[in-house]
Design brief:
alpha/beta, TIM Barrel, 10-stranded mixed β-sheet, two-stranded parallel ribbon, elongated
Length: 367
């Protein structure tokens, strides 16, 4: 039997798994779990007296930290944006980004967000996204998703207060493992992130949105990458729209359980000459109107290695924001961070990896 990665389990799930897999020592599961989350090591020898019991734990379970391949940094007005390239056990590379979000009065960063990956590559094929050029190589397991948080905490000393699924991959194309990872990350004891400190971003994956709605998580933040309110334009730059139209996406989003003060994030990557015309702002407003409270996050396009267009200039950004606000929409400009190190929105990924042979996701079940 393959070892079960503790990082893919909540404490209660580990207790259950240990009771089934071990003939002795299952009673130490809670203490071993806390130790694993704190140190990145199983450490059964600290909690079990019998060598045979320790050996049983080591045979049945593991803690699968990722390997830090390299890091790159970009100094900005509010702290340093850093990208870490991490290697999975089978040799694939994924990327995470630590983003400074708030500055204290003394100038130090008071809040950090970690941008997580959910897949090696992505099959959604968005034309403005570097990861989309890779194609889908494989899903990440729940344990590999959680391991990103623990690896950067232990190996790099990164402490983060917020988590966003906006790295490599379409999170809801890997919904089962992403939902399990969120269950682990919010678990007590364990990482204990509040649901409202976690955001899932999707291109509009209908089946995944349905699975997410079924969790009943009203406090989880959700954002959708819109990028055009025109069916033809969105279908051209985001192939997912050919399967799930804007009207159908509206219907699904309206069915998502939400707390009274919930705000849908609507991400809009501004692409000069493609989605910044005089009527585009009105189309965004038409899409958003049935959804209730929304916030449009305007993201200036970050050209990758094969640019779809150029980066928008400041007057173009300001003009589009003004047109959006004229429709009554609240708008927040996403300040570009990490562009020089290929860590900004739409820039993550290594296209050379698509030449490697895909490997299946782990057989470890999602509990």
């Amino acid at each position: 039997m393959p070892q079960v990665d503790v990082l893919g389990l909540t404490c209660q799930q580990l207790e259950q798994a240990a009771s089934l897999a071990l003939t002795a020592g299952a009673g130490a599961a809670g203490r071993i779990y806390r130790h694993a989350i704190a140190t990145g090591r199983l450490g059964a020898e600290a909690f079990c007296r019998s060598p045979a019991t320790v050996d049983g734990w080591n045979r049945a379970f593991t803690v699968g930290l990722l390997t830090v391949v390299r890091t790159v940094e970009e100094l900005g007005n509010v702290g340093t944006t850093a990208k870490a390239v991490l290697a999975t056990a089978d040799g694939y590379e994924i990327e995470v980004v630590r983003i400074p979000m708030k500055a204290a009065p003394d100038g130090t960063v008071s809040a950090w967000t970690l941008c997580l990956s959910s897949q090696v590559g992505c099959k959604m094929g968005c034309t403005f996204c570097e990861t989309g050029r890779m194609g889908l190589i494989r899903h990440l397991t729940a344990a590999e998703i959680v391991a990103q948080v623990l690896t950067v905490r232990i190996a790099l000393g990164w402490k983060v207060s917020n988590l966003v699924f906006m790295g490599m991959g379409e999170a809801l194309d890997n919904a089962d493992h992403v939902i399990q990872a969120i269950t682990v990350l919010t678990g007590k004891p364990g990482f204990q992130y509040a649901l409202d400190k976690i955001t899932v971003c999707t291109s509009g994956h209908a089946e995944g949105l349905t699975k997410l709605a079924a969790t009943g998580w009203k406090r989880l933040n959700l954002s959708v990458s819109l990028n055009s309110g025109d069916e033809a334009v969105r279908s051209r730059i985001m192939p997912v729209n050919r399967r799930t139209s804007l009207v159908e996406l509206q219907r699904i989003l309206m069915s998502i359980p939400r707390r009274p003060n919930f705000t849908f994030g609507v991400n809009y990557c501004l692409l000069p000459g493609i989605n910044d015309g005089p009527d585009d702002a009105a189309r965004v407003a038409d899409f958003c109107r049935p959804l209730g409270r929304v916030l449009v996050n305007l993201i200036p396009y970050n050209p990758g290695n094969a640019p779809l267009t150029r980066a928008p200039e400041e007057p173009e950004i300001d003009g589009f924001i003004d047109r959006l606000r004229a429709t009554g929409l609240p708008v927040r400009r996403r300040i570009t961070k990490g562009r020089s190190i290929m860590a900004a929105c739409g820039q993550l990924g290594n296209v050379a990896l698509r030449r490697q042979r895909p490997t299946p996701v782990s057989d470890t079940p999602v509990l």
